[in-house]
Write a structure and sequence with these properties.
- By secondary structure, the chain is of the alpha+beta class.
- The protein has one domain: 2-Layer Sandwich (HIT family, subunit A).
- The protein has six helices and 13 strands.
- Helix 1 crosses helix 4.
- The longest helix has 21 residues.
- The relative contact order is 0.18.
- This is Galactose-1-phosphate uridyl transferase N-terminal domain-containing protein.
Length: 306
């Protein structure tokens, strides 16, 4: 395959698919001793103020299933007018050695439910304009602690790239009469970038991925935030996410997953981006903003389907 420049579905973002530059690094983290982990059951009460405890999927012998903590070292907080917002930690299991892909689909669905409950609580603050929910797994992906956890980050302003995206999505709807991502779903569910789908959810590798093996997970129904997912949609979401993370584990790569929620923008279409961190940005990427990706999305999708 010859190198090919591809454009994002809606934004002015470009990726050069260049397979001959292939090769992927591996990242192995050294687990911290369980006795020192602030998220393990003996220590978690000292890790930060507990905002929520969820126990619907608690197993025999587990003291709890999921806990949400106020971040002890926040970059933003409601007490800081110069950096206003919220920053929370979602501890996904009391088991120090478990990863999300090791958890049951029901537990992963409950994690999504916890994200929804905290989204609903945070949006009661009328100052908040934007909520980012994300997970860093592995040191190269930004994780500082081994114990499985994700984070919720909310601010009173919309980051410029998200404002640009919202404006382009709205302009597309005005011009075409429907959501651009609803159109993307129709196209991708029939193509070679499709990975998994059921009646509720679809997973596919995007046409212009910024990261090796990047994959998107999206509800087929047009909803703008996670609070609107039905229980059946959450379970579908969880089952497909589990499959994806099992495959990323086979690659031996750290990863991030994240999704954006722009308050008061019903035109946005909720979706999760999952980005394995097998690529290192160098001079072209940093200098020009053009991304060179040696793994085509068609090759990545074939890997996930295997």
């Amino acid at each position: 395959m010859k190198p090919e420049i591809r454009k994002d579905y809606i934004q002015e973002k470009y990726t050069i698919i260049a397979p001959r530059r292939g090769g992927r690094p591996h990242d192995v983290d050294q687990a911290k001793a369980k006795a020192l982990c602030v998220f393990c059951p003996p220590n978690i009460d000292q890790a930060g103020k507990v905002l929520l405890t969820a126990n619907a999927t608690r197993l025999p012998g587990e003291p709890w299933a999921i806990k949400v903590l106020k971040n002890k070292f926040p970059a933003v907080s409601p007490n800081n007018p110069k950096a206003y917002g919220y920053q929370e930690v979602v501890v996904e299991t009391p088991d120090h050695l478990a990863e999300v892909e090791n958890l049951s689909s029901q537990r992963i669905a409950e994690i999504l439910s916890v994200y929804a409950r905290r989204t609903k609580a945070i949006t009661k603050d009328r100052k908040i304009e934007y909520i980012l929910i994300f997970k860093n797994d592995g040191g190269a992906a930004g994780a500082s602690l081994r114990h499985a956890h994700s984070q919720i980050f909310a601010t009173q302003f919309l980051p410029p790239q998200l404002k640009d995206k919202s404006q382009k999505v709205q302009a597309y709807k005005l011009s075409h009469g429907h959501c651009v991502y609803c159109e993307v779903i129709k196209k991708e569910q029939r193509g070679q970038r499709l990975v998994f789908q059921d009646k509720n959810m679809i997973a596919f590798c995007p046409i212009a991925p910024m990261h090796n093996y990047e994959i998107w997970l999206m509800p087929k129904r047009h909803i703008d935030n996670i609070t609107l997912l039905t229980p059946a949609e959450r379970l579908s979401f969880a089952k497909i996410l589990k499959k994806i993370l099992v495959k990323i584990n086979q690659l031996g790569l750290p990863y991030n997953y994240y999704f954006h929620q722009v308050i008061n923008d019903e035109d946005q279409h909720l979706y999760m981006k999952i980005t394995p961190r097998g690529s290192i940005w160098a001079g072209v990427e940093i200098g020009s903003g053009l991304i060179i990706n040696p793994i085509s999305p068609e090759v990545a999708a074939k890997f996930y389907r295997q």
